[in-house]
Amino acid sequence: MSTLVNPLDESSRDRQSPAPRLDGLEGKTLALLDISKPRGKEFLDRLEQLLKERYGVSRIVREVKPTYTKPAPGALLERLAFVDGVIEALAD
Amino acid sequence: MLIVGDQAPDFSLPRLDGTDWGLEEEAAGDPLLLAFIETDCPTCRLTIPYLKRLAEALGPDSHRVVAVSQDGGQETRELVEAYDVSFPVLLDTDLDVSRSYDPPSVPALFLVGEGGRIELSEVGFHKGDLNSAAEKMLSSLGLPVQTVADPDDGAPAMKPGCTSRHLEPAVAVESGEATTERTGGGTGGGTGGADSEPSPKPIDLLPERAPAASRVTLADDEDPYEYCMSAGFSPFLPVVPPTAERVDTFLAGVPHPPDRVVGLVPPCYGPATIEKIAANAVMAGCKPEYMEVLIPVIRAACDERFNLHGVQATTHSATPLIILSGPAAARLGFASGAGVFGNVARANSSVGRALQLVMTNLGGALPGEIDMSALGNPGRFSYCVAENHEESPWEPLHVELGFGEDESTVTLFAAGGLTEVSEHTARTGAGVLRTIAATLSMVWSWRQCGRVDAVVVLCPEHAATLSSDGFTKGDARDFLFEHTGVPLRAFDHEGTEGTQARDSYEEVLIDGEPHYRKFADPSQIRIIVAGGTAGKFSAVMGGWLAGAEGSQTVTYPVKW
């Protein structure tokens, strides 16, 4: 019989429920979060246009992460707290 | 905010136990450090252990470190218990004292000195300020000066804090109402006080301690080797089972308690306690004495400048390369000569492997889940080399970086694969370097310039050629910087990687032909000497994204 020391992370973490889903896009305020990869602006410009034209999104807020290599800073997330939804977009 | 030279306003506030504490009476003409804190501010929580260390250094005068909490009694008590704080903690419940000292953010330190004048006034976490406050207080009280904020303990040198409670919008506008909610709701959470949702657990950037590892007792007929694989301890390669006896042997040689946290391992930020590191070191096949190197390796890996979060999660193949420099390498049996990147010595193989196990087991980056590397990298089994000082004509890496010859260091570089550079024909240093420069021009991607970095591993024969030609290590790096570029003709192919950023590149002439400079600065090229004495094979290792927005190479001294 041998006793082993658990080498894994045993921290308990709070379970997070997924954010509630939107019932539609009409009249909503959405944020487009550019993760700062090359050509992200080009991609999101087109997405913004389509969201307004085809889906009736009333307002688009644009934010850019300082770098795609790290999580978004807390202050940036706080600035997005009021929107109905966020589309975080990759490019390249 | 009150500044150096201002008179510190006298005040009286209740301690946690309800008794009164008055500034003038407690200071009594000797220095006293006031630290304004919020209980849920990660930077404040990072600062607490350093304040504790200062209080301990003050001995019988430990009460001269005083925290002023901007939160209610319940949250403050939880903080005091979590960090085992014994210096006085006051409750500035209505924020009147915060308003009178008026720091824009917390933590805010005010050193009240002779005559009640403020001698230090700073916000945020700064190791330099903490040491400066310690020096002033200790010397003023006739006590031996000591460093309370070790620059190499794994915590950042500085970190900004959170807005002081008295300036938060809800508090500033509706002081009374917001304060009632904040202190009565038990949320510890400032402007979010009106929200009825429970607040998340406060974030500890570098907790002092973490719970002990659990034990798993196996049945007599269970094969411990197979158990370790099936239980996810190391699903990729068999390991030495981390029996309690083996782990205890490792712990016996470490002058820290088993529950001491060395760092939180990104990207899932599991606490790397001494005990957890030891269990993974046992599994990797380390000897107990390798812990002396492995502990600073884990500190370096968890250093936020290294950005292991990104290195672990990227689709690139980068993984930490450990470069050991200094006398500890030979003392502990690390290989630095022939076959240095291969399976050549237990120390290299097992320390490199232990880091990788810590990264997956405590950092949580399992391939295909959080580790999204498209190709991976053989270095993800183990990537650890030592510098070959004996065969190097130059000062070793740790001396180049400002450490003493007798010291040793571990340097972590987010390395991709290794590309060998054969140059058996060149008889001049410049000839050798031109061949290496051609390979350097290809790191990351051919047309990508600027935000790239690389390690050049010079074999002893090439290093000797360079030295006999009069090149210092600095000369060699400068030569590579000047001669590494991508010809402008390569950019005729628009729509390929690197072309989109060409406006930011520096155009230079290399051998008469227009090029874009590959590296933004010579410091993006690091040179080490390693490998065997026969064979003119050097190597180039490209990094991940260089600089503060990617991964910065970090160096830590080998010390407990």
Tell me about this structure.
The complex is a heterodimer of chains A (92) and B (560). Helices cover 24% and strands 22% of the residues of chain A. Chain A is α/β, with parallel strands linked by helices and 92 residues long. Chain A has a domain at 29-89. Chain B has 560 residues and is of the alpha+beta class. Chain B folds into two domains: 12-194, Glutaredoxin (3-Layer(aba) Sandwich); 227-557, no CATH class. Chain B is 31% helix and 19% strand. Chain B has 18 helices and 24 strands. In chain B, the strands form seven sheets. In chain B, strands 15, 16, 17, 18, 22, 23 and 24 form a seven-stranded mixed β-sheet that branches. In chain B, a hairpin with a 4-residue loop joins strand 13 (261-265) and strand 14. The longest helix of chain B has 17 residues, at 42-58. Chain B is globular and about 80 Å long.
What would you say about this model in short?
The complex is a heterodimer of chains A (92) and B (560). Chain A is an alpha/beta fold.
Count of the domains of chain B = 2
* Number of DSSP helical runs of chain A: 2
**Largest sheet report of chain B:** 7 strands, mixed
> What Rg of chain A, in angstroms, do the CA atoms define?
19 Å
Number of strands of chain B: 24
First CA to last CA of chain A: what distance?
A: 54 Å
Task: Please give the number of β-strands of chain A.
Answer: 4
- Count up the helices of chain B: 18
Radius of gyration of chain B: 27 Å
Strand content of chain A: 15-25%
Ends apart, CA distance between termini of chain B: 39 Å
Instruction: Please give the order of strands in the largest beta sheet of chain A.
Output: 3-2-4
| Poorly predicted sequence stretches spanning 5 or more consecutive residues of chain A | none
- Class from secondary-structure proportions of chain A: alpha/beta
Overall mean pLDDT score of chain B?
93
